[in-house]
Here is the input.
Amino acid sequence: MSRQNKPKNAQDFLSELETDFGFQAAAAMRREAQHDEAERRKREQAELIADLEKVGASINEISDLLAVPVVSSGGYAVLLDHMTRDYRPWLLEWIGRSFGRKDAYCLFEELVVLLKGGSLPEAAATGVAAAISEIARPSDLDTIIALVSDTALGKCRIFFVRNLMRSKKPHARATLRALESDPDLGIEIRLRLSRAKR
Here is the structure.
């Protein structure tokens, strides 16, 4: 086989990309857009980070909060306050997910009321639903069933499917069966139930 007809390997392809002006220009634009987005996110969460620091939670960005061993009640009060502010969806969801820690269980009922109240922006509701699912205890099964059955909550109910799958209680499995045709949850439920049969 002549060199001209020899198939290209990955190294040949990468070498070509290094000299491809169009590819390099597009890559530079992507890097600049990523940098601009990172800077914008830093500015967006600056007030939240400053308020958290005032109550003893010293972090660089909201995602760092998950690594903090204990969040004070003051920290959770700050998060509850900021969760209803006019932030972009990514930040609202992160704020909601920040309650997904065992030490936030004292707020379980309050989070449930917030979620059911329908006043949270969609992204915040998604984060709060994920947090509720994370901190729920087996004794909260009836609350989880009520949440997963409440179609007004929409797609964020999908987080509660795993809670029901973990439960050994017959009414947990009965609830899943009843929701198999739910437009938001049906695919996930059928998939999990089929895996459980294997």
Observations:
- The chain has a mean pLDDT of 87.
- The two ends are 50 Å apart (CA to CA).
- The longest helix spans residues 21-44.
- The chain has eleven helices and no strands.
